[in-house]
Amino acid sequence: MLAKGGCPKTMLSIRDALEALEGKWKLLILFALSEGAPKRFGEISKAVNGITDKTLSKELKSLEANKLIKREVYDTFPPMVEYTITPHGLSLEKVLDELHFWGLSHRKKVMGR
Amino acid sequence: MLAKGGCPKTMLSIRDALEALEGKWKLLILFALSEGAPKRFGEISKAVNGITDKTLSKELKSLEANKLIKREVYDTFPPMVEYTITPHGLSLEKVLDELHFWGLSHRKKVMGR
Question: Which parts of the sequence belong to the HTH hxlR-type domain (chains A, B) (predicted)?
Answer without folding.
Answer: 7-111
